[in-house]
Design a protein that fits this description.
The chain is mostly helical. It has one domain. Helix content is 83%, strand content 0%. It has nine helices and no strands. The protein has helices spanning 2-11, 18-29, 38-47, 52-76, 78-88, 92-115, 120-130, 134-159, 161-192. The mean pLDDT is 80.
């Protein structure tokens, strides 16, 4: 089922309304959908490399809007919608453990989740449940999601199909490396200040 959903989403990248489909997928993925928008973003940029900025911009804005919807789910509809979404991803236990970390490091957590391939929707919902300050949530999401989508689009614009294979093959490793460097930087700043 997941593979069929993935293939169908990829098929939409060539549709004449692909930019709107990308926006819908980006919005939905930030709060409840399984397939990341990269599945559409990558072939869309490769098909229209001169439009890379517009494609990344739409993807980012829609994703952040979806993140705000996820925040709303967490803040106001957790029992009805948020808890079942977390259970669908087998993340209820992880969520309970992560809730405490939000009190101290919410902005960094949201930024990292927005940039990395880990399910961002879990963190958008968690931000609403924990009452993370909405403006901080918005900017952490905007920077994290923007960095991710603009970096992918820029690399595809610059290097084309060869970078697609590199990104798809090593996305998890590259993201973990970036996150490790980010955490090391935050720890270093705490010890130096």
């Amino acid at each position: 089922m997941l593979r069929a959903l993935y293939d169908k989403t990829l098929e939409f990248s060539g549709h004449r309304h692909a930019i709107w489909i990308l926006a819908a997928v980006s919005f939905a993925e930030s709060s409840f959908f399984l397939i990341p928008p990269d599945v559409l973003l990558i072939p869309m940029v490769l098909a229209a490399r001169t439009k890379w900025f517009r494609i990344a911009f739409v993807c980012t804005l829609a994703s952040v809007a979806g993140g705000l919807f996820g925040y709303f789910i967490g803040a106001f509809l957790f029992d009805e919608l948020g808890q079942p979404i977390l259970e669908m991803y087998h993340a209820a236990d992880k969520f309970a453990a992560a809730r405490e970390a939000y009190n101290e490091n919410g902005v960094w957590i949201v930024f990292t989740a927005g940039f990395s391939p880990i399910p961002y929707k879990i963190f958008t919902i968690a931000s609403g449940v924990t009452g993370m300050e909405p403006v901080s949530f918005f900017f952490a999401s905007l920077v994290g999601r923007g960095a991710r989508f603009f970096l992918v689009a820029l690399l595809l614009w610059r290097y084309g199909a060869p970078i697609r294979a590199f990104i798809e093959k090593r996305l998890g490793l590259l993201t973990l490396l970036f996150c490790a460097l980010l955490v090391a930087g935050v720890v270093a700043l705490k010890f130096l200040s």
